[in-house]
Amino acid sequence: MEHIDLPALTRAAGTVRLPGSKSISNRMLLLAALAQGETEIRDLLDSDDTKVMLEALKKVGVGVTVTGVNAYRITGCGGPFPGKSGDLFMGNAGTAIRPLTAALALSGGHYRLSGVPRMHERPIGDLVDGLRQIGADVRYAGKDGFPPLEIFPAAVKLAAPIRVRGDVSSQFLTALLMALPLTGETAVIEMTTELISKPYIEITLNLMSRFGVTVEREGWQRFTLRGGQRYVSPGVVHVEGDASGASYFLAAGAIGGGPVRVEGVGRGSIQGDVRFAEALAVMGARIEMGENWIEASAPATGKLKAFDLDLNHIPDAAMTLAVAALFADGPCTLRNIASWRVKETDRIAAMAAELRKLGAAVEEGADWITVAPAPTYSRNAAIDTYDDHRMAMCFSLVALGGVPLRINDPKCVAKTFPDYFDRFGRIAAPVIAIDGPSASGKGTVAQRVAETLGFHFLDSGALYRLTALAALRAGVALDDETGVAAVAATLPAEFPGDRILLAGDDVTEAIRAEEIGVGASKVAALPAVRTALLERQRAYRRLPGLVADGRDMGSVVFPEAPVKVFLTASAEARAERRHKQLIGKGMPANMRPLLQDILQELRERDARDAARSVAPLKQEEDAELVDTTPLGIDEAVAAVLDIVRRKLPQVVS
Ligand SMILES: Nc1ncnc2c1ncn2[C@@H]1O[C@H](COP(=O)(O)OP(=O)(O)O)[C@@H](O)[C@H]1O
Ligand SMILES: Nc1ccn([C@@H]2O[C@H](COP(=O)(O)OP(=O)(O)O)[C@@H](O)[C@H]2O)c(=O)n1
């Protein structure tokens, strides 16, 4: 089985831009499909579940055009689907099959809906019962109460209120609410049991009203849709970041020190799961919130507090709390989470089984689970994920408690968060930042340290050198800030093995030329160029860790790096090294610059790097000085590894 091994980690800090919300993405797709007019949907989640929805919509005659990255134009039908037959595969996407079943049942066609084996175990009977009450012809093609389903044309009548249960899944109510405007008549829905997961209904009502249909609500018992309303495209809509996905990063900040900031959700969010932040606050985490961001850090005391909470309002994000409980100061109870039993897997059973593998004492009931933390946890446990994206994501947090572990079938995160482990690495992978002046030995030492530790390596200077070379080749003047920044933003660079390619051309040697070094230091003084290269550098931060060398690794690019080294040497020693390097490369004596000219050039470059307004070269307060003037390469590497051993004992054995 495929797996990912997570090393023992100690710290998480950084910023994560969230992918779009699954709940909002699939609701918006369906509403746009039923609406009159064209809807531009931006920031749609790119995941298995949204692909399932897009494919199904195309099959029943909805116009779908890709307009950009995660951006689509949906040409609405202005009513029922025009495609009157279709065989639709729904994978394991609950947010697709439920609302589609309702909309198809009211579209007057003949359709089949099926999914993966687990989908055929997830109940849909309450929804089918609701639809049958108004005359829809929905039949079970397999076991009663479960997909696969077969839908036939039927005459629908809305005489009496539709009565549905609310205690199995709120998605049944969402499905009916979104589909009923297709009838054009007044419809009333009454809940026969207490409605769970109410915040998801709020999302549904909110989005329906954005598409022009309002619902009158009496408490959470009775919902009335006045006849004659129809969906109309609101034009351009943006999908909020995924609040359930935010929970992993916020918990990472609470467990791993922080601050970790998520962007895409905040005070202005319509998703109930943003209230996960409140639960973390109950655990003592420090939370800050803006309109469009949330930030979490560990409690001031350093230790998370035990909790006993009703989590009915945040069932998905609550899974993250069950794992955070491992690091609390006492047993933690999660209550009112019956819906866990009918999700991608039986999440209560799965959670209990996997937490026990780590050594936690777990008790479970029909709708609750209690997790009692242990003083230490088993190392290298193999965690099963049950084809459940949330199991994989929440168990990654265990590593932040300094517990290495294996996660089986990590690709199941594709359901909602395909690049989850890369993003997790970008806040949790340890970074060793090595800054210093030219020819101090940064590149040589950083590469050797990376090899010793099995870490990734970033030679940030190479990106500035590539930018200078690419600008020169494109005829852009090196002081044209906008022009050079545009070159930097779209740099077609690749790094296969130890080669460096620019637009496919091998420039490994070319970028080391002295004039390119000078050009690099010129373009590096332009703020817009530095900004353009920032995210590209941060993307190198991956598990198990990164060694990065440059001028501003510790100050700007990775300010949260747990190890920062300022590597230097006297200007004379550095000039001599460069001189030797040129001799070593076989440069003939008549072409070689004189030692004193190299020294002069070096001093000018030092001055330019130190004097510039953005990210000037200087030793940060929290960086440790290593003066390599009297050291050979091996000694310099050993000096840096000593610092790493002291600061990150778990990564150097
Ligand atoms: N501690 C050292 N003692 C002697 N020579 C060194 C030392 N560190 C690096 N060198 C040599 O100096 C040259 C410049 O090192 P490099 O790693 O390219 O520096 P930087 O990345 O800081 O510009 C290389 O030829 C390298 O082998
Ligand atoms: N993080 C970085 C790395 C390099 N640079 C700039 O890019 C130039 C070339 O970087 P480098 O590390 O390849 O150069 P050398 O130090 O090897 O000469 C430096 O002179 C800096 O001006 C930077 O500004 N910030």
Automatic annotation (TrEMBL):
Pathway: Metabolic intermediate biosynthesis; chorismate biosynthesis; chorismate from D-erythrose 4-phosphate and phosphoenolpyruvate: step 6/7. Belongs to the EPSP synthase family. HAMAP family: Cytidyl_kinase_type1, EPSP_synth. InterPro entries: Cytidylate_kin (IPR003136), Cytidylate_kinase_dom (IPR011994), Enolpyruvate_Tfrase_dom (IPR001986), Enolpyruvate_Tfrase_sf (IPR036968), EPSP_synthase (IPR006264), EPSP_synthase_CS (IPR023193), P-loop_NTPase (IPR027417), RNA3'P_cycl/enolpyr_Trfase_a/b (IPR013792). Keywords: Amino-acid biosynthesis, Aromatic amino acid biosynthesis, ATP-binding, Cytoplasm, Kinase, Nucleotide-binding, Transferase. 3-phosphoshikimate binds at K22, S23, R27, S169, S170, Q171, S197, D316, K343. Monomer. GO terms for cellular component: cytoplasm. Its main location: cytoplasm. Its EC number is 2.5.1.19, 2.7.4.25. It is an enzyme of class 2 (transferase). It comes from the Bacteria. It catalyses: dCMP + ATP = dCDP + ADP; CMP + ATP = CDP + ADP; 3-phosphoshikimate + phosphoenolpyruvate = 5-O-(1-carboxyvinyl)-3-phosphoshikimate + phosphate. Residues 432-645 form the Cytidylate kinase domain. PANTHER family: AROM/DEHYDROQUINATE SYNTHASE, PENTAFUNCTIONAL AROM POLYPEPTIDE. SUPFAM superfamilies: EPT/RTPC-like (SSF55205), P-loop containing nucleoside triphosphate hydrolases (SSF52540). This is Multifunctional fusion protein. GO terms for biological process: amino acid biosynthetic process; aromatic amino acid family biosynthetic process; chorismate biosynthetic process; pyrimidine nucleotide metabolic process. The keyword Protein biosynthesis does not apply.
